[in-house]
Design brief:
Length: 458
């Protein structure tokens, strides 16, 4: 075949040098960090795959938008520009800026959730669940069962099981359900997308029961890319057309702009209903800031607008998702189990099959994360028992079906040479996998413990 090789649709204009510590130095650092990767100084990390949140590389267009930001307290031109972009791309009339995604949750949920409420959805993200449980309400996971079978190569493993959703509504009643939240793509479930057909079907059920449907839209553009490349009937549609259709089924959304808007900080709420917008406005002013900046600077809102446009370009999404798949393929070739198919923003390595000798209550995915840092200076994050936290009522540890190390790839930051180092690091651990032992928690916070927990080696 004489096909032209694939390469990224951008070139590098500025570089950031990285420090590479020795393995012995890294052993000292992780011990001092009490085996929590969040406690490491970023400088001591070579390849940082802790998160794809706020870690992307902005474009020259975004950097120049920063210079033109309008820092007016009220009515900033940058806010108006951001709002117009959201109205045009996503189709919502009302926009409230917030300092990040969880702040959007805090504001919207303050207006909507009462104690004892039930919030059905597809594997709620940890901060979403935190904000629900903090209000003495309950998140009910209605994701399809296939999502927990990591070998099933299905195109839309983020989908909602409609039978589970119907059963949840029947069991608790509409009065208890202020909204349904659909996470696109589904982060907790492995960066797996939700199909347009499923979005439509969930929306129809919600309409039938007059329950609002809200998107947790952090990675909506990656979700649209998967619809275009995997779902019948969408190949000829542009990403922007698909995005418009996806959002047409929703009543509102929360957004962490640190993901698919490719900025370092920011978020927003977008809504159709004026009354709900007004209710949220009060909380936005109390918690975030005035309605036209809500915790963001004018320049950040300007960069957000530019980032939303770039983040919904097909060529950009193709490069990004191809890199995630590249890492997944390199790891799979070693015989190491990952969640399949590769997600939109991250590769998830199965720690239970990696370390069968370590029981789940000794945090095998945390052990793998620590080992990968020591071997190759790569930082991932545990998505397993530590993150699953304790049941708010019984205080028992919740053991999730999957125990994963997530390797999230920042947007436009690393090359595939870096991905090769990540796979090499995992290979080093794989070859001596029987020699690893578990961890024990020394300290944990009452909620969202994974950020601050400390550990000791068994
Ligand atoms: C990141 C994220 C959030 C929270 O956003 P922050 O900007 O980190 O506060 C909520 N939901 C999903 C799906 C996310 O990925």
């Amino acid at each position: 075949m004489n096909q032209q090789p694939y390469a990224e649709p951008w070139r590098v204009k500025m570089v950031e040098p990285l420090k590479i510590l020795s393995k012995a130095e890294r052993e000292t650092k992780i011990k001092a960090a009490e085996y929590n990767l969040f406690n490491l100084a970023a400088e001591d990390v070579y390849i940082d795959l802790l998160t794809d949140s706020g870690t992307g590389a902005m474009s020259d267009r975004q950097w120049s938008a920063l210079m033109q930001g309008d820092e007016s307290y009220a009515g900033s031109r940058s806010f108006i520009e951001m709002k117009k972009t959201i109205q045009e791309l996503l189709g919502f009339e009302y926009v409230l800026p917030t300092h990040q995604g969880r702040a959007a949750e805090n504001v919207l949920f303050s207006a909507l959730i009462k104690p004892q409420d039930i919030i059905p959805g597809n594997a709620h993200f940890d901060t979403t669940k935190g904000h629900i449980e903090f209000r003495q309400a309950t998140a009910v996971d209605c994701t399809v069962d296939e999502a927990t079978d990591m070998n099933l190569e299905l195109p839309f493993k983020g989908n909602v099981d409609l039978t589970k959703l119907e059963a949840c509504i029947a069991k608790y009643g509409v009065e208890k359900i202020p909204f349904v939240i659909l996470t696109i793509t589904c982060n907790t479930g492995g960066g797996q997308p939700v199909s347009m057909a499923n979005i439509k079907a969930v929306s129809a059920i919600c309409k039938e029961h007059k329950i609002p449907m809200i998107f947790d839209a952090a990675r909506f553009a990656e979700n649209a890319y998967f619809i275009k490349t995997r779902e019948q009937g969408y190949q000829q549609h542009s990403i922007k057309e698909i995005v418009r259709e996806m959002f047409s089924y929703a009543d509102g959304m929360t957004m962490s702009a640190k993901k698919d808007a490719i900025i370092n900080i920011g978020g927003f709420i977008a809504l159709r209903d004026r009354e709900l917008y007004r209710a949220c406005s009060t909380f936005n002013i109390m918690f975030e800031g005035y309605l036209t900046y809500g915790g963001m600077s004018g320049r950040d809102m300007a960069a957000l607008a530019a980032g939303l446009r770039e983040g919904t370009e097909f060529e950009y999404l193709q490069a990004r998702i191809a890199q995630v798949k590249y890492l997944g393929d390199e790891i799979s070739k070693l015989g190491i189990q990952i969640v399949k198919p590769a997600g939109g923003h991250a590769i998830y390595v199965d720690a239970l099959s990696f370390f069968p000798q370590i029981e789940q209550k000794q945090y095998p995915a945390q052990v793998l994360g620590v080992a990968l840092y020591v071997e190759a200076g790569v930082r991932g994050v545990e998505i397993g028992t530590v993150m699953a936290d304790r049941d708010p009522k019984t205080r028992e540890e919740r053991l999730p079906k999957m125990e994963l190390l997530r390797l999230a790839i920042p947007r436009r930051v690393y090359t595939n040479n870096h991905m090769d180092v990540v796979a090499w690091g995992l290979k080093q651990i794989w070859e001596k996998r029987e020699s690893y032992k578990g961890l024990k928690i020394k300290y944990e916070a009452p909620i969202m413990r994974h950020f601050t927990a400390t550990f000791e080696q068994l």
